[in-house]
Every structure is written in C-alpha cells, then in structure tokens.
What does this fold into?
Amino acid sequence: MQHVKIPQDRIGVLIGEGGETMREIEAQAEVRLDIDSENGSVAVETVGDPVLGLKGPEIVRAIGRGFPPEEALRLLDDEMMMFDVVDIDAAARNKNDLQRQKGRLIGEDGRTRELMEELTGASVVIYGSTLGIIGAPEEVDAVRTAAEMLLDGAPHGSVYSFLEERHNEMKHKGLEYHRFPGGQS
It folds into this structure.
C-alpha cells in the first residue's frame, strides 16, 4: 500500500461526481483508494494486476498536480507512459519571482504551454508551484528540458527552436520506425 498526499482543492476532482472518478480509477488501475478528505491523504492499495497497480499512485499524484482525471488515466495507455514534475519553486527566489517564472512557462495566453504540448505530444499542466508532464519518455524529457531552459532564463525563441528540433527528431524517428521492410530508403 502506498500513501499519496494531494492538495485539499483536488480531492473533489479525484473523487468525482458521486464517486464516479474514484471508481473509474479503481477499476482501470486495479487498485482500491482510501481517501481522507480531512488531510488530503490517499492510500492506494493494489487489488489486481501488480504492474497496473504501480500506476495507481502516479494517477492520484497526477490529479493532485492539476491534471484532469482523463489525462491522468492516459498513464495506463502504455507501460512507457510516465508522469514527471518540475518544481518551479526551486528556481524562484521569492513569491514574485515564482509568479514571473510561472508566467514564462505559461506564456502569453497560454501559448508557451500549448507549444510544449503540440510539439512534444505530452500533456502539460501548471498548477501551484509545479509543472506536471504526462507522456512517453522522450516527450517528457523534451518538455522538462524546455521548462528548465525557461526557468534558467533562456529567451522564448531559443526554447521554441529547441522544441521544433526535438519535434522533428521524434517525427523522423517515428518514420524510421514505421518504414516498411525492403522498401526504398
């Protein structure tokens, strides 16, 4: 059994209307959730497939970090899917700096965050003092690197170029992987 602590304001999202979301997570991840809505502690117990059960705490953590349940459940789509968190607070000197850093990651009208998603294929959520990422390892790595570049003060243009480059590399790898055997190269 694993214990995951999530923010108070995300407990309702985890439970869902009439417990619907909680039951869906329990059914799909083959776990049992014991939610203490007083302190935000969630006990996650594996009741079925142990490999699926390992994703249970990750799904709860992802919802706690601001992901909608449908996005968090993507972690079950494929065993390679992963969830990662970038701590924005660690890069900020004070509260004002935290707001500025979050603003850099979100971008004007959310454009930077959207570009991170579009060019990598990962899901990106900025909630509280963290940036959450759900995706395949190379997608998560690209978003983490882009976020760290922005937090280190890199100009947005360079970060967009980096993301474009990684997008093209991933697309090229996908083409290599799906090329027909015996076909023209």
Q: What stands out?
A: The domain at 2-67 is CATH 3.30.1370.10 (Ribosomal Protein S8; Chain: A, domain 1).
